[in-house]
Structure to design on (627 residues):
């Protein structure tokens, strides 16, 4: 358990040298985005503290940066909500996020995402991505700028629903692996068709032979999804173990266990085995190995799936479990232990992204510092001091240490306006 | 608001609203336009609407929309009757004809397999395709269903049903933007896709 921790302690958090590449947002422009009618803002490196009351635009600024990097919002699936309707009085309302970004190759690029209503009075929106003025696809944005966002709701990651944990994996993988995102989107579409077909078969409107094509498509996507999830969980676990061990004062060993609803086996015998104690004895497998096994399992479950009218096994039912000293944290852990687990995985994510991008991602901390107790808060602030660009929102400056504040740029956010704070009486 | 409008007006607005891509706003605008326009405009429209249903039928061979069956393409002796392009809709026939380089004939399936929409293989003109090939030998079947998921599912089905008949089967796919609709593919891309068609795995 926790193999290799002793001799590897925290070496992954390297100290910054002058030769290390950086990734940063140099300048941000918003138009009709959430609270902002218009914003033009140069963003320094180092920590930036956004201070202000709630609903003034602190979170929207972080959301804009996240949106720019991923073209999705961490808060909403409804594009409509991103538009500032009070000022967007054009015939075709739109919102725009633009930024000058510096990639790891020290190249300055202009990235712009415009969200515009498709046609008058509809509720459909079209996303236009431009990089240096040229129209691009979403996948072209991949690898340009990485972000890690830490929200108060992330603190519920351990205790929350499996869907929340799947979403966490999907968003993290989505930033680096386009094949994953494509497989995930396709999987959802195929699943919808397959479930409809299962119900038609149950009602005798269709025959079982019609499942063949959809099973094949589903298995192909599932292979990609399962393989990627296996890999990221293993990699995150390796990194998170050190942090968890550290925060718990050396008393706890964390394990991240992938609990797929369908578990491929190296032997390929299609046997499903539940890992009750989270022991993962299987080596990593690639998509091409997993797909035929999943297809086999679909056949084995066909009768029941037809009866129930839905697909019962697959990535749509996967889970990620946090285990400490062999016990499942969501069932047997204290609230403090669960929070340590979350903090460990978020810090691991930061290093994981750094390994993927070759530089620290931009770290966005939304109101989360105030939610942590003093000890975990101090640990977090200490661990992130080498991150090139950190944007942090808070309603109270007093939650931050004086040491942290002295290195930070302080901004006041009020009614969609941002102004510098010159002195702090913390 | 509906009470202030005579039933004959709301009836037409409702009828327009049922058309794809027409919202209630556009439906009202069209209706008021017709109210104000000279009578022959609406007469011509109503005549066209009636003829659309009374004068057209499906071609008994290829199932394309036609006024006379067999359709002009199926009757054309200069066209190669042993090469069949299989498409989802009549508009796809128009798209292929626009390239000006195809000299074979067609088979219109009238849709694509989509369980969510309740469309299975039985709803398509698949059986008719098999019967057609059995009745008169064919050299090549070119599957030109849309390059999206439903189109691919349909292509699989066509292949499964035609394969036992010993016909060469090719798939029009390479170079076509995936997820799209054949109808909207530009002529040059479509021509290239034809030239580069490959055997279906
Ligand atoms: Zn015909």
């Amino acid at each position: 358990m926790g193999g290799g921790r002793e001799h590897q302690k925290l070496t992954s958090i390297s100290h910054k040298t002058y030769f290390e590449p950086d990734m940063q947002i140099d300048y941000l422009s918003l138009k009709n985005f959430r609270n902002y009618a218009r914003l033009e803002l140069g963003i320094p490196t180092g920590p930036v503290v956004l201070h202000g009351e709630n609903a003034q635009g602190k979170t929207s600024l972080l959301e804009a940066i996240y949106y720019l990097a991923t073209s999705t919002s961490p808060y909403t699936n409804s594009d409509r909500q991103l538009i500032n309707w009070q000022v967007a009085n054009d015939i075709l309302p739109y919102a725009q996020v633009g930024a000058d970004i510096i990639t790891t190759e020290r190249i300055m690029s202009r990235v712009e995402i415009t969200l515009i209503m498709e046609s008058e009075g509809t509720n459909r929106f079209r996303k236009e991505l431009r990089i240096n003025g040229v129209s691009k696809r979403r996948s072209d944005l991949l690898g340009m700028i990485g972000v890690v966002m830490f929200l108060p709701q992330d603190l519920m990651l351990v205790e929350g629903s499996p869907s929340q944990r799947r979403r966490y994996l999907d968003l993290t993988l989505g930033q680096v692996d386009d094949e994953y995102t494509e497989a995930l989107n396709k999987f959802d579409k195929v699943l919808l068709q397959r479930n409809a077909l299962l119900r038609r078969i149950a009602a005798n409107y269709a025959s079982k032979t019609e499942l063949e094509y959809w099973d094949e498509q589903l298995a192909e996507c599932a292979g990609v999804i399962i393989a990627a999830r296996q890999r990221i969980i293993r990699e995150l676990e390796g990194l998170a173990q050190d942090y968890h061990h550290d925060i718990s004062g050396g008393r706890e060993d964390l394990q991240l266990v992938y609990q797929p609803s369908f578990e491929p086996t190296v032997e390929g015998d299609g046997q499903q085995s539940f890992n009750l104690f989270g022991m993962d004895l299987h080596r990593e497998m690639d998509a091409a190995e997993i797909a035929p096994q999943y297809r086999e399992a679909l056949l084995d479950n066909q009768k029941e799936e037809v009866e129930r009218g839905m697909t019962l096994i697959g990535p749509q039912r996967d889970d990620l479990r946090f285990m400490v000293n062999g016990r499942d944290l969501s069932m047997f852990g204290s609230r403090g232990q669960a929070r340590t687990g979350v903090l460990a995985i978020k810090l691991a994510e930061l290093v994981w992204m750094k390994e993927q991008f070759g530089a620290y991602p931009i770290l966005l901390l939304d109101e989360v510092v105030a939610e942590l107790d003093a000890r975990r808060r101090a640990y977090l602030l200490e661990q992130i001091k080498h991150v090139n660009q950190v944007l942090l929102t808070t309603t109270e400056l007093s939650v931050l240490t004086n040491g942290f504040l002295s290195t930070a740029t302080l901004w006041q956010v009020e009614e969609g306006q941002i102004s510098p704070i010159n002195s702090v009486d913390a | 608001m509906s009470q202030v409008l005579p039933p004959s007006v709301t009836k037409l607005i409702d009828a327009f609203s049922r058309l794809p891509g027409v919202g209630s706003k556009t439906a009202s605008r069209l209706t008021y336009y017709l109210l104000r326009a000279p009578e022959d405009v609406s007469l011509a429209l109503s005549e066209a609407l009636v003829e659309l249903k009374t004068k057209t039928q499906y071609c008994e061979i290829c199932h394309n929309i036609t006024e006379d069956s067999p359709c002009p393409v199926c009757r054309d002796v200069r066209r190669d009757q042993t090469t069949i392009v299989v498409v989802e809709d009549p508009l796809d026939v128009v798209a292929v004809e626009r390239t000006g380089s195809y000299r074979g004939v067609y088979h219109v399936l009238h849709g694509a397999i989509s369980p969510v929409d309740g469309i299975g293989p039985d709803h398509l003109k698949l059986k008719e395709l098999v019967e057609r090939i059995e009745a008169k030998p064919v050299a090549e079947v070119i599957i030109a269903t849309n390059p999206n998921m439903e189109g691919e599912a349909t292509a699989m089905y066509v292949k499964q049903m035609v394969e036992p008949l010993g016909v060469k089967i090719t798939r029009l796919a390479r170079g076509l933007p995936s997820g799209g609709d054949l109808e909207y593919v530009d002529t040059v891309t479509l021509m290239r896709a034809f030239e580069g068609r490959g055997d279906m795995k």
